[in-house]
Amino acid sequence: MTPQDINTGRHLPVMEEFYSLQGEGFNTGKAAYFIRIGGCDVGCHFCDVKEAWDASLAEPVDVEDIIKRIEPLPAKNVVVTGGEPLLYNLDYLTQRLKEIGITTFLETSGSSAFSGTWDWVCLSAKRNIPPLEDNLHKADELKIIVCGDDDFAFGEHYAMKVSRNCRLYLQPEWSKRHQMMDKIVQYIKQNPQWSISLQSHKYMQIP
After folding, report:
1. How far apart are CA 20 and CA 70, in angstroms?
2. Spatial distance between the Cα atoms of 75 and 33, rounded to a whole number of angstroms
3. What is the pTM of this model?
4. CA pair distance 78, 97, nearest whole angstrom
5. Which domain covers residue 174, as residue numbers?
6. Is 93 helix (H, G, I), strand (E, B) or coil?
7. Could you count the other beta carbons within 10 Å of the beta carbon of residue 11?
8. pLDDT in tens, 138-164
9. Structural domain count of the chain
């Protein structure tokens, strides 16, 4: 494998792959194959997969091998997450996924330029490195992680920038869920354009 293989997206630094249920946001409950790509330049303090930040710890994987593992599965949904997957060229991966009839979901902070062809984009805006303005209109779903009271105003700032059809979600940060849950519920009751997103996979204790 050469650096060119990474640049073209034919190999990607994959931290893990697994078949499970989508636990968060609009597509909660759907069976999907998850591809977690290593490397992140955002580095949120509340990240629950900090081991995905260092791309050098993730083995470069041939996209064709990934396709072979996905093709026999009964569910035809794939979630590409990270880390921050948009640090890499995802055109080839999504091209191959579409060729075998896969619905593609992206989980991103939107902090890097887009690549790939996506059926659903969940953009989770972060303070450390804000989403690129050009990426905001690509979001089908805006997900704001709520750690404290100021995150409501942070969410409203980006809600004004995404498209009118974008779904809006407030999700309690897992370690603060007991402190913030009631505040989120009350906020949504007063601002019903928002919905709540829960990390249901953690409640169910599944990957």
Report:
1. 12
2. 8
3. 0.92
4. 8
5. 3-204
6. helix
7. 23
8. 999 999 999 999 999 999 999 999 999
9. 1
